[in-house]
Amino acid sequence: MSRSKDRNAENILKQELVIPPKTQQKIEAAYDIVRARANERQKTGERSGKMAGGTEDCRGRRRVLKPSAAAVLAAAMILLCGLGVAAAVGHFTKQVEEADGAVRYAFEVNYELKPVEVAAVPEYLPEDMTVADGDKYGSGKEDGRDISIWAMNMADIDYFCQTMDFSGVEKVEKTAIQGMEAHLITYQDAEKNRSPKEIYLFNPEDGYVLWVWGDYAVSMDELVKVAGSLTITVTESPDLAYRTEEEKAEEARLEQEAQEAWEAAVSYGVALEDITAVGEALEGADFIGASYTVEEAAFYDSLYEVPGYNPQGVCDREELETWLNEDGTHKPYLRYTLHEDGQILEEKETGVKFLAVTVTVRQEKAYDSEWDNGTPFDAVLVRLEENGEGRLVQAPERYAPVPSEDYDLQMEGRCFYLNQTADAMNDPQYFWRQMEEGDSQTYTMVFAVDADLAENQEAYQNLALWFDGTGSDPEHPRYSALW
User: Fold this and answer.
1) Rounded CA gap, 304 and 182, in Å?
2) How many Å apart are CA 82 and CA 102, to the nearest integer?
3) Order of strands across the sheet with 281-283?
4) How far apart are CA 271 and CA 392, in angstroms?
5) Which residues contact 321 (CB under 8 A, 6 or more apart)?
6) Rounded to a whole number, what is the distance in angstroms from the first to the last CA of the chain?
7) 169-177 vs 208-214, strand pairing mode
8) Which residue stretches of 40-199 are H helix?
9) What span, in angstroms and rounded, lies between the C-alpha atoms of 135 and 59?
């Protein structure tokens, strides 16, 4: 399954994913820093900070602070000024606002001091953890035991993180680690939401902020040990500088224009007559050369009632068996309804039914010379609604399982089953087939669909399929109807 999903993501589908609020919070924080390191310019609406010009500082140095070393001045200033406001000297000051589970950090950068490069390497890691990728550490298993360490210099802070906002916070414990002001952040309903733990270390004297992030199965005690073991290297970099006011203004303008264009395109949606009807072929992407025709669709209470059902076609049998009763019906699960901004609107237990969709795929032409991945058979189930102008867009509200449910069968709307021919049984690609020009195949996909959608005629009438092989994207969606 993983190979097929990776190919889908890389080659075809750009579907927006359903992400639980705490995971979204984690991703947004990571993106702030990842983009600083990679110098990427994402256009997907993440917040962007402000940049300003400054003069170079004459202090050239390279210092390595061992875990046992204490930044005496920083510690003294913490005691004098309190933990809510950083020292009034050095590379930055900060303000911290806490209210009703929300925390905001606002930084003011001292542009008279040149930014420096910072690296932080842990001397201690919890048992069985190794370096996974760069500044990421983990057990190599999907067990919630992952740690990331990001060293943010002042150019990073100035451009990406002049303000950092956190919601759903249970507690901010303010202490000192390695002589630096440290904030230990934990979240409400942490066990249910599989929330991370986070530690921020502030060093205005040397000009950096360290972010130590631990996934849900990492204890705060372990994370504190990791933060206390960091060997921190501060290096002058002649190429590192703040952006000018002109650069800042121009980039902000371009990002604003790109975001507005993206939102306008996505909110424009499709006309009802542009959705391919049942029994009609939807032409696929040119480089694949296939077409897709929905023949029929029907809901079933039991998976065993689906005509021709064969367990061999399930892409993850272990996941399915966890949620399947003996009679083939689906066990209920706990679900969040999320606003488009990620806020939780409702929590409820819901039953699940099975949607079987019969499709014919025809290979209209040979693959492009550089394409050898085959033809994707799978699709994503999407909910559409009118946008007030007679056109259809994806519903802004999203459904997602409560993280502690460990429920992945719906896979962001993807099918979990594809009936297979004898020669394709146990094919590791699952949803991909090599086809010759003129070949066609009729097959059945099965989706898990929440019962309140399946039992509501208005709701299920607005369900449609987004085939991976059509080259569809959020700005130019191409849907197939089911009814």
Assistant:
1) 55
2) 20
3) 281-283, 290-300, 352-363, 440-450, 417-418
4) 6
5) none
6) 28
7) unpaired
8) 72-81, 154-160, 190-193
9) 28
Question: For every one of its 483 residues, what pLDDT tens digit does the chain have, with 9 covering 90 and above?
Answer: 333 334 333 333 333 333 344 334 444 444 443 343 333 333 233 322 322 233 233 223 333 333 333 333 333 333 323 333 333 469 999 999 999 999 999 999 999 999 999 999 999 999 888 876 778 999 888 889 999 999 999 999 998 888 999 999 999 999 999 999 999 999 999 999 999 999 999 999 999 999 999 999 999 999 999 999 999 999 999 889 998 889 989 988 999 999 999 888 888 999 999 999 999 999 999 999 999 999 999 999 999 999 999 998 888 889 999 999 999 999 999 999 999 888 899 999 999 999 999 999 999 999 998 888 899 999 999 999 998 888 999 998 899 999 999 999 998 899 999 986 545 545 556 788 889 999 999 999 999 999 999 998 887 889 999 999 998 888 889 999 999
Report yes or no: 45 and 259 within 8 Å, Cβ to Cβ: yes
Residue entry with tokens 């003011």: 108
DSSP string, 276-289: BPTTSEEE--TTT-
Distance (Å, whole) CA 213 – CA 234: 21
Largest interatomic CA distance in the chain? 78
Q: How far apart are CA 391 and CA 436, in angstroms?
A: 37
Whether residue 43 contacts residue 440, with contact meaning beta carbons closer than 8 Å, is answered with no
Structure tokens at 131: 């370096």
Burial of 256 (C-beta count, 10 Å sphere; 0-12/13-18/19+): exposed
